[in-house]
Amino acid sequence: MQFHGYQDLRSRLLSGELTCEQVITDYLQRIESSRDDNIFTAVFHDEAMARARELDNKLQRGEEPGKLFGMPIAIKDNISMKGAPLSCASKILAGYESVYDATVIERMLAEDAIFVGRTNMDEFAMGSSNENSAIGPVPNPYDKTRVPGGSSGGSAAAVAGDLAMVALGSDTGGSVRQPAGFCNIVGLKPTYGRISRYGLVAFASSFDQIGLLAANCDDAALVLGVIAGKDEHDATSSHHDVPEYDTTMDHVSIEGLRIGVPRAFFPESLNADVAGVVKAGLKKLEEAGAELVEIDLPESDYAIAAYYILVTAEASSNLARFDGARYGYRSPDSPDLSSMYVNSRTEGFGAEVKRRIMLGTYVLSAGYYDTYYKKAQQVRRVFQDKYREAFEKVDVIFGPTSPFPPFGIGDKMDNPLEMYLADVFTVPASIVGMPAISVPVGFDSLGLPVGVHLICNFFEEGKMLGIARHLQTLCQTVPSN
Amino acid sequence: MSVTKENVAYIAELARLKFTDAEQEKMTSELNMILHYIEKLNEVDTEGVEPLSTIHDQINVLRADVEHTPLSNEEALRNAPDKQDRFFKVPKVIG
């Protein structure tokens, strides 16, 4: 059972050619047969089947179907869904069960979506390969010896393998976009504040955004339209109106589009094979009538340096709540309160999480605040000012999603800094808070997926999705299934 | 700037984490590698630049100060590692 995107599935459901029960049965069977790939941390078999039947009945009763009627969706294991387990792929949350619905879940349920399961990830969304997971790595669907990217590696692999039509992820510095690039799908990080984070486990609060992974831009736009917008439970959610994304997308034309091509995104260290595929995509846009504009942006290395000060500082504070007292893992070796804290955290957190808590605690400790944290916040403003300036001259900023193709499982686990550099092209958009998307544009000489990374100005998700859709069409990477 | 093994032991104490001697050794060299990379930031001229702490234009979003119960006592205690009556139970503080 295969579909040309959600509209195809929807029309076949509404015409009565198929039922939600048949569709979900099919998806659950595929999930079952991919079990060895470790993509899901939990599968909602019975719940999804019950909901499918309930939706079929709803349609039979003649009630109006919701915007996401029957859409099979996977959620990253750091988004709360009442009554379901939530682990953040960490031992410290083993056995935890959410006691409320995230706003995004509530809004999708109200539009008749069906959740099929929770997906594997780097522990607490810290990583670029999905290897920092307490339940083990996930193979890349295009080469099982390689990583699917991270931290939303399970969500990307789920959509790439058609185990879900759309998956929710979270993106702090590239955690939706980089795995989307590695798995040949679309990955969208919206403007900071566009989607409520109520119910998303916090990692770095001035960066975290819920994002979307989908096979095509239309499906991503549809779901974005449902979950975006003001939420009284999240003070950082934006009150900007949510536009009709499909209409905005339809108005985007490549003819006369000004594409900013910064040297900062094409350094000498960029993998030549990746550069070739990315530039071929750019050429197609130029041939379709776009104007290429050279722009000057600060080197992305500075964004990485500022990023790892700010996110580790915020993480060290956000993860202080995991102390063994109220929820999560408590060490059996807890004779007094102090040892309960220390032993629960030491036994519960994995290596990368500890490394980031340590770095963040250090940069915030007495005497170093100005040197690190304040300096990084100043650099953050320098970046934001430069990007604002760039958008006076261009409509979109173009570059590769990743400096190299998907790497081998284990290749970067001994060198944390090398792993951090995997996000060199995705972090700047997170530093400035603007929306960005990874679009599949082709394959390198080894047959590994290559993604193009587009950044637009604040709240221009519709325009960005429109450009991305054109690019996907020009590069013929819209799945034919 | 670099950290010593003693610094790492002190930071671990602040972060409520414990490391073996070998782990402390490894953490020291990893943190120094990352801190060395971070020094790049000194190349960026930030003289007189106001630090950026709020990403968008909404500052001080307020809501009505109305009492409500987002979680019942029972729900709040559902994931407790140990509890007694209506309370979280933890080991004694003073030995």
From TrEMBL, chain A:
One of its GO terms (biological process) is translation. It catalyses: L-glutamyl-tRNA(Gln) + L-glutamine + ATP + H2O = L-glutaminyl-tRNA(Gln) + L-glutamate + ADP + phosphate + H(+). The keyword Zinc does not apply. InterPro entries: Amidase, Amidase_CS, Amidase_dom, AS_sf, GatA. The active site is at 76 (charge relay system), 151 (charge relay system), 175 (acyl-ester intermediate). The keyword Ligase applies. Its EC number is 6.3.5.7. Residues 23-464 form the Amidase domain. Keywords: ATP-binding, Ligase, Nucleotide-binding, Protein biosynthesis, Transferase. One of its GO terms (cellular component) is glutamyl-tRNA(Gln) amidotransferase complex. SUPFAM superfamilies: Amidase signature (AS) enzymes (SSF75304). GO terms for molecular function: ATP binding; glutaminyl-tRNA synthase (glutamine-hydrolyzing) activity; transferase activity. It comes from the Bacteria. Belongs to the amidase family. GatA subfamily. Heterotrimer of A, B and C subunits. Allows the formation of correctly charged Gln-tRNA(Gln) through the transamidation of misacylated Glu-tRNA(Gln) in organisms which lack glutaminyl-tRNA synthetase. The reaction takes place in the presence of glutamine and ATP through an activated gamma-phospho-Glu-tRNA(Gln). This is Glutamyl-tRNA(Gln) amidotransferase subunit A. It comes from Chlorobaculum thiosulfatiphilum (Chlorobium limicola f.sp. thiosulfatophilum).
From TrEMBL, chain B:
One of its GO terms (molecular function) is transferase activity. Keywords: ATP-binding, Ligase, Nucleotide-binding, Protein biosynthesis, Transferase. It catalyses: L-glutamyl-tRNA(Gln) + L-glutamine + ATP + H2O = L-glutaminyl-tRNA(Gln) + L-glutamate + ADP + phosphate + H(+); L-aspartyl-tRNA(Asn) + L-glutamine + ATP + H2O = L-asparaginyl-tRNA(Asn) + L-glutamate + ADP + phosphate + 2 H(+). Its EC number is 6.3.5.-. GO terms for biological process: glutaminyl-tRNAGln biosynthesis via transamidation; regulation of translational fidelity; translation. Allows the formation of correctly charged Asn-tRNA(Asn) or Gln-tRNA(Gln) through the transamidation of misacylated Asp-tRNA(Asn) or Glu-tRNA(Gln) in organisms which lack either or both of asparaginyl-tRNA or glutaminyl-tRNA synthetases. The reaction takes place in the presence of glutamine and ATP through an activated phospho-Asp-tRNA(Asn) or phospho-Glu-tRNA(Gln). Belongs to the GatC family. PANTHER family: GLUTAMYL-TRNA(GLN) AMIDOTRANSFERASE SUBUNIT C, MITOCHONDRIAL. Heterotrimer of A, B and C subunits. This is Aspartyl/glutamyl-tRNA(Asn/Gln) amidotransferase subunit C. It comes from Chlorobaculum thiosulfatiphilum (Chlorobium limicola f.sp. thiosulfatophilum).
